[in-house]
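Regression check, fe (ii) ion case 138:
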Amino acid sequence: MDKKTLIEHLNHDLEGEMGAVIHYTLYAKTVKGPYYEDVAEMFDKLAMVEFEHMKELADQIVLLGGTPSTTPRPMKLLRRLDELVKYNLEQEEIAIEDYKKRIKEAEQLGEVGVRLMIEHIIAEEYQHFLSFKRLLGK
Ligand SMILES: [Fe+2]
Ligand SMILES: [Fe+2]
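Current build output:
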Protein backbone atom coordinates (compact mmCIF):
# COMPACT_ATOMS: atom_id res chain seq x y z
CA MET A 1 0.00 0.00 0.00
CA ASP A 2 1.36 3.39 -1.00
CA LYS A 3 -0.12 6.88 -1.22
CA LYS A 4 -0.82 6.56 -4.96
CA THR A 5 -2.91 3.43 -4.40
CA LEU A 6 -4.80 5.07 -1.54
CA ILE A 7 -5.63 8.02 -3.85
CA GLU A 8 -6.87 5.57 -6.52
CA HIS A 9 -9.06 3.80 -3.96
CA LEU A 10 -10.43 7.09 -2.63
CA ASN A 11 -11.28 8.05 -6.21
CA HIS A 12 -13.18 4.77 -6.53
CA ASP A 13 -15.13 5.78 -3.39
CA LEU A 14 -15.65 9.30 -4.76
CA GLU A 15 -17.13 7.86 -7.97
CA GLY A 16 -19.53 5.80 -5.84
CA GLU A 17 -20.61 8.89 -3.89
CA MET A 18 -21.18 10.85 -7.11
CA GLY A 19 -23.27 7.96 -8.43
CA ALA A 20 -25.29 7.97 -5.21
CA VAL A 21 -25.88 11.76 -5.35
CA ILE A 22 -27.22 11.48 -8.91
CA HIS A 23 -29.24 8.35 -8.29
CA TYR A 24 -30.90 9.53 -5.06
CA THR A 25 -31.64 12.96 -6.54
CA LEU A 26 -33.26 11.47 -9.64
CA TYR A 27 -35.16 8.89 -7.66
CA ALA A 28 -36.72 11.70 -5.60
CA LYS A 29 -38.02 13.04 -8.93
CA THR A 30 -39.27 9.75 -10.40
CA VAL A 31 -40.79 7.89 -7.43
CA LYS A 32 -44.47 7.05 -7.80
CA GLY A 33 -47.11 5.43 -5.66
CA PRO A 34 -48.42 5.79 -2.10
CA TYR A 35 -46.47 8.15 0.16
CA TYR A 36 -44.36 9.29 -2.81
CA GLU A 37 -43.87 12.74 -1.22
CA ASP A 38 -42.36 11.27 1.96
CA VAL A 39 -40.16 8.87 -0.01
CA ALA A 40 -39.01 11.66 -2.35
CA GLU A 41 -38.10 13.80 0.66
CA MET A 42 -36.12 10.94 2.19
CA PHE A 43 -34.13 10.48 -1.03
CA ASP A 44 -33.49 14.22 -1.32
CA LYS A 45 -32.05 14.20 2.21
CA LEU A 46 -29.92 11.13 1.44
CA ALA A 47 -28.58 12.83 -1.70
CA MET A 48 -27.46 15.81 0.39
CA VAL A 49 -25.56 13.55 2.79
CA GLU A 50 -23.87 11.74 -0.12
CA PHE A 51 -22.99 15.16 -1.58
CA GLU A 52 -21.15 15.99 1.67
CA HIS A 53 -19.30 12.65 1.45
CA MET A 54 -18.34 13.49 -2.13
CA LYS A 55 -16.86 16.82 -1.03
CA GLU A 56 -15.03 15.31 1.95
CA LEU A 57 -13.43 12.65 -0.26
CA ALA A 58 -12.43 15.24 -2.88
CA ASP A 59 -10.79 17.33 -0.12
CA GLN A 60 -8.76 14.38 1.13
CA ILE A 61 -7.70 13.36 -2.39
CA VAL A 62 -6.45 16.90 -3.04
CA LEU A 63 -4.69 17.02 0.35
CA LEU A 64 -2.91 13.77 -0.54
CA GLY A 65 -1.71 15.35 -3.80
CA GLY A 66 -4.17 13.59 -6.12
CA THR A 67 -6.74 14.71 -8.66
CA PRO A 68 -10.41 13.96 -7.94
CA SER A 69 -12.22 11.82 -10.50
CA THR A 70 -15.12 13.42 -12.36
CA THR A 71 -16.77 10.17 -13.45
CA PRO A 72 -19.77 9.02 -11.39
CA ARG A 73 -20.21 5.28 -10.93
CA PRO A 74 -23.20 4.14 -13.05
CA MET A 75 -26.18 2.98 -11.02
CA LYS A 76 -29.55 1.56 -12.00
CA LEU A 77 -32.52 3.94 -11.91
CA LEU A 78 -35.12 1.43 -10.81
CA ARG A 79 -38.74 2.56 -10.62
CA ARG A 80 -40.36 0.07 -8.25
CA LEU A 81 -39.84 1.13 -4.66
CA ASP A 82 -39.21 -2.39 -3.27
CA GLU A 83 -36.67 -3.20 -6.00
CA LEU A 84 -34.95 0.13 -5.64
CA VAL A 85 -34.71 -0.06 -1.87
CA LYS A 86 -33.28 -3.59 -2.08
CA TYR A 87 -30.72 -2.42 -4.64
CA ASN A 88 -29.75 0.61 -2.54
CA LEU A 89 -29.42 -1.53 0.56
CA GLU A 90 -26.85 -3.62 -1.35
CA GLN A 91 -25.07 -0.48 -2.58
CA GLU A 92 -24.81 0.92 0.97
CA GLU A 93 -23.46 -2.45 2.14
CA ILE A 94 -20.80 -2.35 -0.59
CA ALA A 95 -19.86 1.21 0.45
CA ILE A 96 -19.54 0.15 4.11
CA GLU A 97 -17.25 -2.76 3.15
CA ASP A 98 -15.12 -0.50 0.91
CA TYR A 99 -14.79 2.10 3.66
CA LYS A 100 -13.77 -0.54 6.20
CA LYS A 101 -10.88 -1.43 3.86
CA ARG A 102 -10.05 2.24 3.43
CA ILE A 103 -9.76 2.74 7.20
CA LYS A 104 -7.16 -0.06 7.32
CA GLU A 105 -5.27 1.37 4.34
CA ALA A 106 -5.20 4.89 5.84
CA GLU A 107 -4.06 3.36 9.13
CA GLN A 108 -1.17 1.57 7.39
CA LEU A 109 0.01 4.83 5.83
CA GLY A 110 -0.44 6.83 9.05
CA GLU A 111 -2.99 9.07 7.31
CA VAL A 112 -5.01 10.00 10.39
CA GLY A 113 -7.08 12.66 8.60
CA VAL A 114 -8.28 10.16 5.99
CA ARG A 115 -9.10 7.59 8.66
CA LEU A 116 -11.15 10.08 10.72
CA MET A 117 -13.06 11.27 7.65
CA ILE A 118 -13.89 7.72 6.59
CA GLU A 119 -15.03 6.83 10.12
CA HIS A 120 -17.46 9.75 9.99
CA ILE A 121 -18.73 8.71 6.54
CA ILE A 122 -19.12 5.05 7.46
CA ALA A 123 -21.32 5.95 10.45
CA GLU A 124 -23.68 7.78 8.08
CA GLU A 125 -23.66 4.94 5.51
CA TYR A 126 -24.68 2.62 8.30
CA GLN A 127 -27.65 4.90 9.06
CA HIS A 128 -28.64 4.70 5.38
CA PHE A 129 -28.31 0.93 5.47
CA LEU A 130 -30.64 0.81 8.49
CA SER A 131 -33.16 3.18 6.86
CA PHE A 132 -33.39 0.95 3.76
CA LYS A 133 -33.71 -2.13 5.94
CA ARG A 134 -36.64 -0.53 7.76
CA LEU A 135 -38.26 0.44 4.48
CA LEU A 136 -38.08 -3.23 3.49
CA GLY A 137 -39.78 -4.08 6.78
CA LYS A 138 -36.72 -5.92 8.14
FE1 LIG B 1 -21.93 8.20 1.08
FE1 LIG C 1 -25.12 6.30 1.86
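Comparison notes: The pocket of fe (ii) ion (ligand 1) is lined by residues 17, 20, 50, 53, 95, 121, 125 (CB under 6 Å). The domain at 3-135 is CATH 1.20.1260.10 (Ferritin). No diff flagged against the previous build.
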